[in-house]
Amino acid sequence: MQTFNLARFLFAFFLFTSFSSAWPWPPSVQNFDGLIQRRQESDSKSDTSPAETGKAQTTKADNPSKTAANTAEATSKGATNTKSGPTRATKSGTEKTSAAASKTQSINPVLPPGGVNMITPSALAQTSYYKIGDYVTFGWNFTSLSVKPAKIDVYVTCQTNQGSYTIANNATFEPTMNVVWDTKPDATGTAPLLTETYTLVIKDASKDVTAIAQAGRLGAYDQFAFGMYTPQAYTPLNQGWKCATCSGAMSSTDLHALKFMLGMCIITILSFTWFAGGFGTFF
After folding, report:
1. Using one digit for the tens of pLDDT, what is the confidence trace for 100-158?
2. What is the pTM (predicted TM-score) of this model?
3. Which of 15, 74, 163, 209 places its Cα 20 to 30 Å from the Cα of 149?
């Protein structure tokens, strides 16, 4: 009985298998395997571009024997492009950043602007006067400089004739500097010097004199004033020279003082004589 049942089961199984193989299945069921995608084994494969992935899939469909080689080539190209792109961009950005940093110097904005300390003549001395036609020497040093200028301009100005007299143009910067000014008319080459007050100007050659002084940088210095005068020609005494501020007579102040002294003496003598005569001293 059991053998008969087993034979019936095997007959039914083979019959169902033959029937399933011969049955005309629809196309949608035959392409069912294409709807199922394989799981990606590594995240590194995601770097492959869509175009390369499509190419690899097409190659796999056309020639399965070349699938592995094409996929490896596409993955290698994608990895190479990914590596070289960021590396080159990072290197170029680093070079530009280094170049920009070398040209920029950080300066504390609370620092005072650079200045000038006069040495010759001393800043503590009284107003200096120089004779027109002589050589005049100026000396100074710089203070509070965080950025040193490359070149320095030095000139003299006069408000009366609006003249400007160049002493040094584009002079090389040094911490302590000295210049000599030849005040002869043929040496100045500009408007004649007058008996007036002049101002010494020291500034950065790359900046205008009206530029606002910045922290740690040299601003235009125009705080030193001095006088220039024209000497009078020598005239001997026997040729009629006279002192314009001198006189052989006493001044009015001295004359009034002398009169006051004489009057007080006379009053004192008369008063003493009258007082003493009242007591019979003289009579």
Report:
1. 434 556 888 889 999 999 999 987 878 899 999 999 999 999 999 999 999 999 999 99
2. 0.50
3. 163
